[in-house]
Amino acid sequence: MTALTKILFTVVALTIILPASLNAQQKRRAVRARTTKAARATKAPLVEISAQDLTLMVASLNLSPEVLYDFEANKPRREAFIKNLAEAFAVAEEAKATGVAAAPEVKRQLALSSALVIAREYGKRRQAAGATTYEQVIPKEDVAAFLNEPGQDANFQTFLRDYESGLPPSSRAAPMPDVQRENLKRQWASVLVGNRKGLAAGVDRERATQLMIMEQHARVLTGVYFQKLGDGLKATEQEINAYLARHPELDPQKTRARAEDVLGRLRAGENFDALAKQFSADSSNRDRGGDLGWFGRGQMVPPFEDAAFALRPGELSGLVETQFGFHIIKVEERRTGTSTRGTSIEEVRARHILISAGAPGGGGRPQSPREQARVAVEVEKRDKVIDRLVKLSRVRIADDFVVGTPGTSPQSPVAPGATGSTDGGNAPTASPSSSSAADERNKKSPRPATVSRRTKRKS
Q: Binning pLDDT at 50, 70 and 90, where does residue 39 land?
């Protein structure tokens, strides 16, 4: 065979063998992918909540009879409850898989959340047995003995650092007063003593207790997980601009037009109280017909204050624009009061209707269009993360359940040998707050506020 023939033979062989080999590799990869997907689908769930479990969880919420009856009659509400749980457990599963739950401070939060549940359930058991005072549940002598144990002072210092790290910066600026620290120390010790007593009494083996611990752990891990994501969930300027372009209802000119329409209806004689309840974006006083009560100078933002103090009782303002939107003000009364220093001060009692960008009558603190866009973009990002984790999670929850309405309280079975605290830890310490996936979804606006200067500084 000549050299040229060998070369031609090799080329022909490669044109036949290589595609066949690549095709075989692709087939093998496809088979592996299908096998992995099937294995994931058939793998045992990490979290499994039955219909009876859901009944126990609702019963543990201590809801009023009216709310329980509504829960029983309202299937969409039960479905929302189940969806909330699925989201929380899915995010918690991801937090564990990515190592978030392994951090020492997170382990301490989980341990304390377990202790809180067990101590609370132990207290309920003692009350059912006839205890009428807290002293009968957790004696002071037991708390004092606990605090005298070796190492507990160091454990409390660790707890205190975790607790203070979870406070807002303004609350951490000054050292905690000694009296407050001592009260916190006794509360911390009381929880851990109650936890010990609950464990000794077998409270942790009750299914209801285990479910509450599971849910509390999910809430803690969800909060920590989204904190870790941090900047990845923040809206960029480009995303905010794109959102504003897609939502012309946030255009200030459209907001002014809506405000002028409301003002025209008031001037035509319509009831101020009724229109405030229908259209005002200030949820802190909307249900009171926009009543702001009495206020003096220096308590409201300048444009609002100047307009209010220029009006006579019964007089209606024109549109007053502030950073919150467009206000329509009606002064009810004027008076001369006395300040704490003994000097005379002028005060007015006024109502207002605030028309802000977005949907009329929306709740929450009044926000600028750009702030609304930022919040909406970040909520959308969080929702996408939650939805993705739910699809990937190994969480199985019953589709529906029976609500234990008053008079049909569900029994909590005991799981022999089971424990409620799955994360362990000898020093149960934590920061003061955490949130669930549903909490993350609901972070659409800060707390309600009026047009006061104090509110402006918090914004």
A: very low
